[in-house]
Amino acid sequence: MHIRSLTVAAAAPAVIGALLLSTPAAAQPLDSVGFGSASSSLGFGSSSSQVNCPRSPLAPPMRFLDNAALDARARELAQDPVVVAAKANLLDTLAQSGLATDDATAAEMPAYVDSLALAAASDVANLGRTSIAWDNQPDRRWGLDNPDVIYRSATIDENGSYVIRGIRNSSQNIYFQVLDAYPGDGTLGNTTGFIAGSDLRTAADGSFTLTLSADPGRPGENHIQLGAGSKRIVVRDTLADWARETPAELRLTQVSGPVVAAPTDPAAEVARRTTLQGEFWANYAKQLLQRLPVNAVAPPAPTIGGLPGQVSAFAQFDLGSDEALVLTVDPADAPYFGMELGHNWFTSMNYWDHQSSLNRAQAMSNPDGSVTFVVSQRDPNVCNWVDPTGHNRGLIFLRWQDLPTDVVPGEVTAQVVSVDDLEKTLAAIPKIEHGARRAQLEHREASLHRRPAVWP
Q1: φ, ψ for residue 248 (rounded to 5)?
Q2: Which residues have C-beta within 8 Å of that of residue 423, sequence separation ≥ 6?
Q3: pLDDT number for residue 65
Q4: Which 3 state secondary structure label does DSSP give 43?
Q5: Nearest-5° angle of CA 150, CA 154, CA 155?
Q6: Of 260, 20, 30, 24, which is closest to residue 129 (Cα–Cα)?
Q7: Mean pLDDT of the chain
Q8: Are the C-beta atoms of 180 and 266 separated by less than 8 Å?
Q9: Neighbouring C-beta atoms of residue 452, cutoff 10 Å
């Protein structure tokens, strides 16, 4: 199982999921191949006792301040002729990138480019405003976003002074990270300031105040000292239980210093950022895919270029329609642990119609505390099926958060087996019936719809 170590072996660079994007393959009906119907399931487990996958009662819907007006402006910018032309040029570039390694990935390319532009438009629309904008909506994803995270961001000036007032609410954790880059810079950027929710002092009612400035701050206060070149604050609320947990309520105020100016030509800025982002992530993904193991997982190691304190592990899968990848993972007692699939455009797969991700609260554990996931086109009739949504090839990303600094999870075991041999391989894993899968997917959808997004 997990080990304690003061040194960590190097692994392939892992960028933290960032905002949101792309429209993946259309949802399958619940009685079609992939959802465990009598005609399409693998045929084992039908005589076993009923197993219910983890789920919680639904909490009230979430709300975000100042989101509607910003969203409307972003959609207007994304349809500007200058942006439309930039998207067409980027499509031509990506078509030559070699990243469309299967039909599903090729089909997603136009929606991916549309979503990159909408993400850039959201950022540009927020310039000149003092608001923390919600980024990770299904139609604007990038950077291998984590479906378990609510991402929000604002552009700031390194010489400015800011106050964030909030209500902590019930997310697994919250992280405030300041970077010296923003989307469209063509770089991952460096962290110039950071505080985690576990270090945040809150009042009895959950309220808190966080200040940001170039000053060091006073002892005992919630403060981030802005390092040289600070441009952007990214806020991540990790939701382990989608049904029950709620992200923090946040309001940003600028106290003093230069105001980040809105661009004189917003559409041209959106076009520029869309082009740079698309080219950057294509190059990043190509380099990563050249190094990542196939159907095996690189050793867990601290995330590079993303969330401070996170441990992650990367892999790529390449499976035939009659093959399954069985992964057994050590959660290492992490407060948060999750696994997701991504496509080669370096975003999450369709996680609202398909179970393409699972976290520790959603998955069933083995008796020894480990967790076994199955990646396959056909439903293996276990709770921890991770659906590749029609992709034969793609990315696997595992994340552990809030581990002690000297704890590294054990290596992930991986095995490719024929779907015909899954019954023997998964003999010790409790099976579920078709009704349990239907309930699991319906609960997943209802939990996601607490988030006020436009769902495809």
Answers
A1: -65, 150
A2: 42, 43, 44, 45
A3: 66
A4: coil
A5: 145
A6: 260
A7: 86
A8: no
A9: 15
For residue range 371-420, list pLDDT tens digits in order.
Answer: 999 999 999 999 999 999 999 999 999 999 999 888 889 999 999 999 88
pLDDT in tens, 326-360: 999 999 999 999 999 999 999 999 999 999 999 99
Helix (H) or strand (E) holding 153: strand 149-155
Work out the number of other CB atoms within 10 angstroms of the CB of residue 32.
11
179 pLDDT more than 60:
yes
Q: How many CA atoms lie within 13 Å of 133's alpha carbon, on the beta-carbon side?
A: 28
The two beta strands, 223-225 and 207-213, are parallel
DSSP conformation class of 294: B
What is the end-to-end Cα distance of the chain in Å, rounded? Answer: 40
Alpha-carbon distances of 35 from 26, 323, 382, 444, rounded to whole Å: 14, 16, 11, 14
φ/ψ of residue 261, rounded to 5: -80, 145
Q: Which 8-state DSSP code applies to residue 298?
A: P
Sign of CA dihedral 192, 196, 200, 202: positive
Whether the CB-CB separation of 430 and 112 falls below 8 Å is answered with: no
State how far the Cα of 163 lies from the Cα of 7, in Å rounded to an integer. 37
**Per-residue pLDDT, 391:** 95
Tokens for 290?
């050249």
The CA distance from 366 to 384, in Å, is: 11
How far is Cα 3 from Cα 332, in angstroms, rounded to an integer? Answer: 8
